């Protein structure tokens, strides 16, 4: 997602930008829920990504529920939720096919006074004036230039999932996690499903565990 935004912004500013994606195939099925911020909408507009109203679901407030399912606190805070794939598709359409290279895994970066070059796992290389490393939490480029910065286990595991269910079914899942003492949350992320009364929801729950402090943490 960050790579698509960077490529789109550079293209909008008049640069010739090529995006190298590590993963092969369509990424539409990746990700789950996503909060829609004003900044995201502004970037989508600048890169020419069409924001269809069906992408987002407006939330009027946030509720804190007790273990018994009763409302403990309500915060009036308008916001919008969406599915990761809906935003990804809109951004992906702004990058021409010839400027999108899938299955390209960066092994190292070289730079000198003339520019920068990315060397890929297949032995090929791409040269340019500027390289933006948007390759995630386990960034190869960051590991090369800032090896002292490493991900650290936060002390808990977050379980995330997108589900299609009615309001009552989703609340049942929510109450089960709350009763088990797991901090959890959920919000609507899409339009009506083909099942009557069903809506797409993004659901999260945390399982408190003691980790060793390594990058991966304990297995879920």
Write the layout of secondary structure elements.
Layout: H1 2-12, E1 19-21, E2 33-35, H2 38-47, E3 56-65, E4 71-83, H3 84-92, E5 100-102, E6 106-112, E7 115-120, E8 125-128, H4 140-145, E9 156-165, H5 167-179, E10 184-192, E11 199-208
Parallel strand pairs: 1-5
Antiparallel strand pairs: 2-4, 3-4, 6-7, 7-8, 9-11, 10-11
Keywords:
single chain; 220 residues; alpha+beta; three-stranded antiparallel β-sheet; 11 strands; globular; disordered C terminus
Could you characterize what this model shows?
Among the domains are: 2-59 and 83-104, no CATH class; 156-208. By secondary structure, it is of the alpha+beta class. It starts with a helix and ends in a 12-residue tail after the last strand. The protein contains five helices and eleven strands; from the N terminus they run αββαββαββββαβαββ. Helix 1 packs across helix 2 (38-47). Strands 2-4-3 form a three-stranded antiparallel sheet. The chain is 22% helix and 35% strand. The model is unreliable at 191-199 and 211-220 (pLDDT under 50). The longest helix has 13 residues, at 167-179.
